[in-house]
Amino acid sequence: MSGHRRTLANGAALPLTQRKSRLARRRASLAARYAAAATPIERAHAAWAYLLGAAARRQPDQRVADELLDDVARTLIRVGDQLLQLQAREPLHPDRRQS
């Protein structure tokens, strides 16, 4: 019934509501997952899922979207390199004495 207004039992009209935007819904979901994350890896996973969800949809300016995603990829590679360098500094056998 298009155009039919829902009413309460006493005949009063229900207030009109508006659906949240996709951005608002996704940000709320991200905030909940991010707050529930207990470790940095879980927080990174929540952010990654948010990014993939945004990137999977059609973009009005695909060139700009591609540039942003390339920037993200380069940043992820740089951070990955830094984490691997930190791991390389760790002694292989921490219980052995270095002479």
Written overview of the protein:
There is one protein chain. 61% of the residues lie in helices and 0% in strands. The protein has helices at residues 22-36, 40-56, 62-89. By secondary structure, it is an all-alpha fold. It is built from 3 helices and no strands.
In short:
With 99 residues, this protein is an all-alpha fold. The chain is built from 3 helices and no strands.
Notable traits:
about 100 residues, plasmid, mainly alpha
SSE layout:
Layout: H1 22-36, H2 40-56, H3 62-89
Helix pairs in contact: 1-2
Shape descriptor: elongated
Main sheet summary: none
**Number of separate helices:** 3
Instruction: Report helical residue fraction.
Output: 55-70%
Strand content: under 5%
User: Which regions have little confidence, pLDDT < 50, spanning 5+ residues?
Assistant: none
Q: How far is the first residue's CA from the last residue's CA? A: 84 Å
Radius of gyration from the alpha-carbon trace, in angstroms: 24 Å
Class of secondary structure makeup: mainly alpha
What number is the mean pLDDT? 87
